[in-house]
């Protein structure tokens, strides 16, 4: 009897009734072959394990062959491996994102910090351009000042002729001040 036949016989014996088969050839082979003896012992151990954990009829436990258990173990290993792969991929992705984020932040910071330097460079190199920009700003400021003067003149005109209006304006200013104070207090606390 060859080892392959012996193993097939052992599997068949587990699935059928052990007593009914005539297994003298198998016993003979088992006495000679250590590998098949180990295989049979492994089978017995697994059967024993199943009988201990599953208090079901022996029929149930014997219907699961060693190959099936081995296949299940292999599958389990494969699933574990896949989970580890996914975990690894996620870690790689996070690391990559972190690198990209750092780069973007560095570029943004560099750009922002270079604007004053750029303005300084423009002031030094293109003096005319800088003067033009400043004069443009001055124009805007002039307009604002003129508007404020008009507003002041208008207010003066109104308040000079009407004490009631000035009183209302004063009350509005006081109320606005109180309102601002009330709004600010919770933030400071
Ligand atoms: Zn053998």
Automatic annotation (TrEMBL):
Keywords: Membrane, Transmembrane, Transmembrane helix. The keyword Membrane applies. The chain crosses the membrane at residues 100-125, 131-151, 163-182. This is Zinc-finger domain-containing protein. It comes from Ktedonosporobacter rubrisoli.
């Amino acid at each position: 009897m060859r080892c392959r036949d012996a193993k097939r016989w052992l599997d068949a014996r587990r699935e059928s009734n052990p007593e009914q088969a005539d297994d003298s050839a198998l016993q003979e082979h088992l006495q000679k072959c250590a590998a098949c003896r180990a295989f049979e012992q492994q089978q017995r151990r697994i059967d024993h394990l199943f009988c201990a954990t599953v208090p079901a009829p022996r029929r149930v436990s014997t219907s699961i062959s060693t190959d099936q258990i081995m296949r299940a173990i292999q599958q389990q290993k494969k699933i574990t491996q896949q989970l580890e792969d996914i975990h690894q991929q996620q870690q790689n992705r996070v690391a990559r994102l972190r690198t990209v984020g750092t780069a973007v932040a560095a570029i943004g910071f560099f750009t922002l910090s270079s604007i004053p330097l750029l303005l300084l460079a423009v002031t030094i190199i293109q003096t005319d351009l800088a003067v033009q920009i400043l004069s443009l700003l001055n124009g805007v400021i002039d307009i604002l000042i003129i508007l404020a003067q008009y507003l002041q003149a208008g207010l003066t005109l109104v308040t000079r002729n009407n004490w009631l209006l000035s009183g209302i304006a004063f009350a509005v200013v006081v109320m606005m001040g109180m309102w601002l104070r009330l709004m600010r207090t919770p933030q400071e606390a």
